[in-house]
Amino acid sequence: MNFYELQQQRRSIYALGNKLSQTPEEIFNVVKKAVREAPTSFNSQSVRAVVLTGTAHQKLWEITLEQLHAIAKSEAAFQKTSDKINNSFKSGFGTVMLFTDTDVIKKLEADVPNYAENFYDWSEQGLGIADYAVWMALAEMGIGASNQHYNPLIDEAVQREFEIPKNWRLRAEMPFGSIEAPAATKDYVADNQRFRLIK
């Protein structure tokens, strides 16, 4: 499979199951390699990753449901959200949580003051690249995933439950698992609205 075919294979998969042939350790090692090789500004390596499987994965989505229930406008609205989480994210094999180490960013801001106002934005670019690299690596293994953002709603509870350092700022949650149904057809914005070649 070439790079472009792999890009097309990487889709948001919501029908997740827990029937994977890979072990948690194998998946963890793939995530580590993908994040390690992802570029960051000034080689800051500010991205942190935590892979949850088994009961830890289940606990993350229980925490998310608890936090969402607390702010739900109605039981009917919460039920819709609850169904989505229980039938998709929680039913998967695991979740990759991606963080930015804010201590790294603060040090860069102090050490290179001329670029201080840019380092947070650049860290977000680094996080996005790492996120995509992990997602592509999972897709290459035939593992389905989607990108979720329940942060900052769940941040404090996640820090307590999983003993996450306070300087790690949660940026994304990526539930993954076996692909139980394919992704929907993807629509594309017309090329002439997105791209330009200037010579």
Keywords:
199 residues, alpha+beta, NADH Oxidase, 7 helices, globular, Frm2/Hbn1
Descriptive overview:
The chain has helices at 3-9, 24-37, 54-71, 75-89, 102-111, 119-140, 155-162; strands spanning 16-17, 47-53, 94-101, 144-145, 168-179. It has 199 residues and is α+β, with helices and mostly antiparallel strands. The protein has a single domain (3-193), classed as NADH Oxidase (3-Layer(aba) Sandwich), CATH 3.40.109.10. Helix 3 runs antiparallel to helix 4.
SSE topology:
Elements: H1 3-9, E1 16-17, H2 24-37, E2 47-53, H3 54-71, H4 75-89, E3 94-101, H5 102-111, H6 119-140, E4 144-145, H7 155-162, E5 168-179
Antiparallel strand pairs: 1-5, 2-3, 3-5, 4-5
Radius of gyration: 18 Å
CATH class: Alpha Beta
Tally of separate helices:
7
Q: Decide which structural class fits the backbone.
A: alpha+beta
What's the order of the H and E elements?
HEHEHHEHHEHE
Percent of residues in beta strands: 15-25%
Uncertain runs are none
Q: In CATH terms, what is the fold-level topology?
A: NADH Oxidase
Distance between the termini: 32 Å
- Label the overall shape: globular
Q: CATH homologous superfamily, by name? A: NADH Oxidase
CATH architecture call: 3-Layer(aba) Sandwich
GO molecular function: oxidoreductase activity
Protein name: Nitroreductase domain-containing protein
InterPro entries: Frm2/Hbn1, Nitroreductase, Nitroreductase-like
Domain Nitroreductase: 9-177
